[in-house]
UniProtKB/TrEMBL annotation:
Organism (species): Streptomyces sanglieri
InterPro entries: NUDIX_hydrolase-like_dom_sf (IPR015797), NUDIX_hydrolase_dom (IPR000086)
Keyword field: Hydrolase
Residue stretches making up the Nudix hydrolase domain: 44-178
Keyword Ligase listed: no
One Pfam family from the record: NUDIX
Record-given protein name: NUDIX domain-containing protein
PANTHER family: ADP-RIBOSE PYROPHOSPHATASE, UDP/ADP-SUGAR PYROPHOSPHATASE
Amino acid sequence: MGFQDTPEEWQVTATETPFAGNKTSVRTDEVVMPDGTVVRRDYQVHPGSVAVLALDDDNRVVVLRQYRHPVRHKLWEIPAGLLDVPGENPLHAAQRELYEEAYVKAEDWRVLTDVYTTPGGCDEAVRIFLARSLSEADGERFEVSEEEADMELARVPLQELVRGVLAGELHNNCLVVGVLSLAAVLAGDGIEALRPADAPWPARPFEA
């Protein structure tokens, strides 16, 4: 199989959900360890997310700056959002988020990478897309509220974002993974080697 992650599921003898929120919940499982002992593992149950690294013809990335209360920071990020519907096609969700957050559409879509954001404490899986051939979206702008009402938009050269990541100035998970992955792609086999936008995603199976 080569050097890759593999699915595995240890025995769970009991489970409970001490908290259920609007989009996520907390689950407590009693898991049997290899030596036979049973330990409790608490983790956040998450529907999954998509993110979009949108690259324009000048090699600039569409980014937005948004307040994130848990870390008490305004972070530069790439457009992203939840998979709101179980089994939702992640490409459709990514196209929706790019439209809603940046009022942009793209003609060329590829899968850039798939990640588990915090596998020690959350089952969130994120698919990061690369979107190119950008243009302004059609129709009315999406009405924003709450934190998004204070959002700033910009287009920043890819190499400036890479520098900011490595300097410890940019911290959003999807932005960091996305820009470093794209830099690696451009220095390696090229964009044509990326997976197609409808590539299977075992972490969040979907219908085409």
